[in-house]
């Protein structure tokens, strides 16, 4: 049993929570203070009757002292704690980190999911994330607001919404819509098999990084993190019109003896004055802290299932991970009707964003689970609107997924001979040593995968560069790929993305990360490379890309076929397939459209529209019809009847089109006796010819 | 021309993918298959003697449309044809559980000569009649038995050879000519006589402005001859349909006619223009008058006006600098 799971810790918590000193408890139980102190320090355990007395004293349910639960008879008290304004009078009208992001669901999906992936717990199983859109209105909304202690919150929201800054305007809009439509959109993001918000309330740890701090990225050393909980977490708040996010976390490592339902809410507002009192930005929803120095600050509380359910934060299982609830979720670029969030559009956007950013992490091999599973659902007042949909990467990136899967399964080839195959080539990356170490450069062998693109693949002909947890750094079109090369898809896996281990893999991962600018969107020369690595490091990313391009050309390029002979000056003049000819202007009438059916007598009755080049003279045209054979054979048919419809008249077997018109139409019935086969057996073709004898 | 079917047909896309090609059981490199141009090249120098190529293909049909439509007993058939040998082979494909139609088509060396055409048809029962074609892939694949690279032929052959030293009797006889055009083969061929002093170096390696302008003049002259010869060849061998009108030929002849007829008979559709040329040619009426237009169309393709202009200017400048 760890320190925190002990009876002593439990007792200390109860004392703090009830603001009772050890002496007071000792007096109430008719004991010495030293006796109580011995319990708190785990030097002794109370007898059974004393345990019951302790439960009674704190108003807890019977058995709480043995199971070390906090199940009280009374509900835990929750408060909103709003940070007082800075004593220096400074005012912040928005959270700088949140300003870096627009309220965009695609960005949110990317950042939040990357965080979950970086916080993955058991590497042998996928991290699961689920996005749930939930629109609340009417009674359901009222209940939710009650649990949120809306009455304490609202004055702050209204006050903050009075400013003119961006945050305030978004907030004002959010409140106005809430007032007018009486509905609120929640977006919940769950992850499972992730670390959860572990660590102490205020000191270093995941919890504090997310709940208490800004821009604390806690980048775990040596692991393929993309910078977890740094700037990215700000997208959660940026996507809430009210600046409000609630959290419920199941911890992978216990804190205060607890794993489940660590809950807290954080509100990010601009500076505001409420009831004459100035407040700085953030506020927290939680249990009032009784620790000296933090008195009355709202701290996370260990909630019961009922509370979690009421705040729409109950979790499926005891598996560690965190649920974030974005209250008043919105998307700048994708607003539905006012008051009716377009759940389908938002759902689609989330699915597409997850597929776009994480198709690689979601790809599984035969015997290798994916790194990530993601799904999206939408509800309205608890009723399912769009059932939970698992994001299937192969639906969006079939060729890419095939390539990666072939690599995971070890079924790649050296040379492509079939359309579904995946070719693999190793591209060496020489990682230079760190400056001043005198070490030698190490060689990492990156993996290049190439496969023919599928029909309808978006954006073929590029190489997707990945490292870390198969995170896309860039997509580049390789240089000097011969013209006319068939569309392909290519993936470059470097560093940990290769799925391999070893010092050279770690070195390559670190080197490539150092070669990324803060946007993490390319590998190029950076200041960090110059400072940290030995000479020659700056040009290394570029040579590596050139080597990748060369390896790709080796796979997709055709053997150069000898020039067809003959001087180029002459070849150029003898091109047979230049796309000229009939297309230019069409200086003659053509059939634009025909419509028709076979009548009871077996004749075709057709209506024919013509496109006519305008001119001052009439056109005299002969409509011709024939049965069109499979391989170009023709069986001519004659007309039994022709009738003018528009802009023309019938002249015997010809159609005379009025001068100056751009279109004309007429109707025709075919002569059944001229049909070599029944009309139902053949394809009818209709054209117009210049009438005989009518030289134009 | 527009056509109508007497029964409902499939509108959606029918996509054909060549999955792989094997020559006598050994897979060809995928680079010999071009999906852009829909061509399969079968000729590998290292394996000139093969007996059978096997083309594995996969077809995707607009399934939802077919399920909702009036068609039953729908099957998918691959058809391999070659006009030159009159070969025609149909192979039914089978439907995989994932909805794709797959199968393979053998290409027998003995049944084909140069370029076979591979198409896919969808056949079904509609209106109580079985075996109707209800859809076809938009474009055919070309299976080229003689090519090393999968490309549609876009250029004619140009052969540089010393006529006098050739094995061909007829070339030796014509050894005085700097160049010749032969339109009788599968593709027209231009022969350049390397035995003709100075011609090959001029065409392949002109340096000075004067040399370049002379090169242009000669090249456009050769090209003009070639286009004229090709036009005559294209209109002299026409097939006549049941209605007595000439059919538009296929292959390079069609390309030549499409490019040149609008200049020979302006303002007429391809069919009308072809009929007119055919009539003038067969009854002799106005055939000689038409030569002027054929010459004009060929000169335009060969860019003779441009090269003459360049040559004249170069001469002018040369004279100016001498003064």
UniProtKB/TrEMBL annotation, chain A:
One of its GO terms (molecular function) is DNA binding. InterPro entries: Cro/C1-type_HTH, Lambda_DNA-bd_dom_sf. SMART domains: HTH_XRE (SM00530). Residues 21-65 form the HTH cro/C1-type domain. Coiled coil: none annotated. This is HTH cro/C1-type domain-containing protein.
From TrEMBL, chain B:
This is Uncharacterized protein. It comes from Streptomyces sparsogenes DSM 40356.
């Amino acid at each position: 049993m760890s320190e925190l799971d002990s009876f002593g810790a439990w007792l200390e918590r109860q004392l703090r929570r009830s603001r009772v000193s050890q002496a007071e408890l000792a007096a109430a139980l008719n004991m010495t203070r030293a006796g109580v102190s011995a319990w708190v320090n785990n030097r002794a355990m109370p007898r059974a009757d004393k345990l019951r007395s302790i439960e009674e004293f704190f108003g807890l349910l019977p058995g709480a002292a043995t199971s070390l639960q906090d199940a009280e008879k009374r509900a835990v008290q929750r408060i909103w704690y709003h940070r007082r304004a800075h004593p220096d009078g400074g005012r912040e009208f928005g959270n700088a980190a949140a300003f870096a992001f627009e309220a965009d669901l695609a960005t949110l999906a990317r950042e939040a999911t990357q965080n979950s992936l970086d916080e993955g717990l058991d590497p042998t199983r996928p991290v699961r994330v689920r996005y749930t859109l939930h629109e609340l209105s009417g009674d359901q909304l009222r209940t939710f607001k009650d649990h949120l202690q809306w009455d304490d919150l609202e004055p702050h929201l209204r006050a903050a919404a009075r400013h003119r800054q961006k945050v305030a305007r978004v907030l004002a809009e959010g409140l106005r819509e809430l007032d007018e439509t009486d509905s609120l959109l929640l977006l919940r993001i769950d992850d499972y098999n992730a670390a959860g918000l572990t660590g102490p309330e205020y000191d270093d740890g995941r919890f504090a990084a997310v709940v208490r701090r800004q821009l604390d990225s806690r980048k775990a050393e040596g692991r393929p993190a993309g910078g977890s909980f740094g700037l990215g977490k700000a997208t959660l708040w940026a996507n809430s019109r009210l600046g409000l996010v609630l959290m419920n976390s199941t911890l992978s490592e216990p804190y205060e003896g607890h794993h489940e339902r660590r809950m807290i809410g954080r509100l990010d507002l601009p500076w505001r004055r409420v009831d004459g009192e100035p407040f700085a930005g953030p506020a927290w929803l939680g249990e009032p802290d009784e620790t000296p120095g933090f008195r009355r600050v709202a701290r996370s509380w260990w909630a019961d299932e009922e509370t979690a359910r009421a705040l729409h934060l109950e979790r499926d299982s005891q598996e560690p991970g965190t649920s974030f609830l974005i209250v008043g979720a919105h998307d700048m670029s994708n607003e539905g009707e006012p008051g009716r969030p377009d759940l389908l559009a938002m759902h689609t956007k989330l699915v597409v964003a997850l597929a776009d950013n994480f198709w690689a992490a979601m790809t599984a091999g035969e015997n290798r689970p994916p790194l990530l599973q993601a799904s999206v659902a939408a509800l309205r007042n608890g009723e399912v609107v769009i059932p939970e949909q698992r994001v299937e990467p192969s639906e969006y990136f079939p060729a890419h997924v095939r390539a990666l899967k072939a690599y995971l399964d070890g079924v790649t080839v050296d040379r492509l001979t079939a359309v579904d195959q995946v070719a693999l080539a190793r591209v060496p990356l020489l990682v230079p040593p760190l400056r001043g170490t005198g070490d030698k450069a190490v060689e990492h062998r990156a993996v290049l995968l190439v496969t023919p693109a599928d029909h309808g693949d978006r954006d073929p002909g590029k190489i997707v560069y990945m490292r870390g947890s198969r995170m896309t750094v860039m997509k580049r079109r390789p240089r000097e790929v011969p013209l006319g090369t068939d569309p392909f898809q290519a993936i470059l896996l470097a560093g940990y993305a290769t799925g391999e281990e070893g010092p050279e893999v770690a070195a390559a991962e670190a080197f490539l990360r150092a070669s990324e600018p803060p946007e993490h969107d390319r590998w190029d020369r950076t200041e960090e490379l110059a400072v940290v690595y030995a000479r020659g490091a700056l040009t290394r990313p570029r040579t590596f890309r050139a080597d990748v391009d060369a390896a790709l050309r080796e796979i997709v390029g055709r053997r150069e076929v000898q020039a067809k002979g003959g001087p180029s000056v002459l070849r150029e003049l003898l091109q047979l397939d230049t796309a000229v000819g009939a297309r230019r202007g069409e200086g003659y009438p053509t059939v634009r459209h025909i419509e028709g059916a076979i009548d009871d007598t077996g004749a075709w009755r057709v209506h024919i529209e013509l496109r006519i080049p305008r001119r001052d003279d009439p056109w005299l045209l002969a409509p011709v019809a024939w049965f069109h054979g499979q391989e170009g054979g023709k069986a001519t048919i004659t007309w039994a009847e022709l009738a003018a419809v528009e802009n023309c008249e019938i002249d015997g077997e010809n159609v005379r089109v009025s001068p100056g018109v751009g279109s004309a139409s007429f109707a025709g019935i075919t002569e059944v006796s001229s049909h070599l086969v029944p009309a139902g057996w053949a394809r009818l073709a209709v054209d117009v010819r210049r009438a005989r004898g009518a030289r134009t | 021309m527009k056509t109508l079917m007497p029964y409902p047909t499939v509108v959606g896309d029918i996509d054909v993918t060549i999955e792989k090609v094997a020559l006598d059981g050994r897979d060809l490199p995928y680079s010999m298959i071009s999906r852009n141009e829909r061509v399969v090249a079968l000729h590998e120098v290292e394996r000139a003697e093969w007996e059978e190529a096997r083309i594995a293909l996969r077809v995707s049909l607009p399934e939802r449309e077919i399920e909702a439509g009036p068609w039953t007993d729908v099957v998918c058939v691959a058809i391999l044809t070659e006009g030159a040998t009159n070969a025609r082979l149909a192979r039914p494909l089978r439907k995989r559980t994932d909805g794709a139609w797959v199968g393979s088509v053998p290409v027998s060396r003995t049944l084909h000569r140069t370029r076979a055409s591979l198409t896919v048809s969808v056949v079904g029962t509609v209106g109580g009649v079985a075996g109707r074609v209800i859809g076809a892939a938009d474009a055919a694949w070309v299976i080229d038995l003689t090519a090393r690279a999968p490309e549609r032929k876009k250029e004619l052959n140009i052969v540089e050879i010393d006529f006098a030293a050739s094995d061909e009797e007829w070339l030796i006889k014509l050894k005085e000519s700097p160049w010749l055009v032969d339109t009788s083969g599968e593709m027209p061929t231009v022969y350049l006589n390397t035995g003709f002093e100075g011609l090959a170096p001029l065409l392949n390696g002109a340096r000075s402005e004067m040399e370049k302008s002379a090169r242009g003049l000669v090249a456009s002259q050769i090209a003009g001859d070639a286009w004229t010869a090709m036009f005559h060849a294209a209109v002299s061998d026409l097939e006549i349909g049941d209605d007595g009108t000439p059919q538009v030929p296929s292959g390079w002849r069609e390309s030549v006619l499409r490019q040149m007829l609008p200049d020979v008979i302006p303002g007429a559709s391809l069919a009308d223009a072809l009929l007119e040329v055919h009539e003038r040619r067969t009854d002799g009426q106005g055939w000689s008058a038409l030569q002027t237009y054929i010459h004009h169309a060929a000169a335009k393709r060969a860019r003779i006006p441009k090269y003459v202009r360049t040559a004249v200017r170069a001469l002018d400048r040369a004279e100016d600098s001498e003064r």
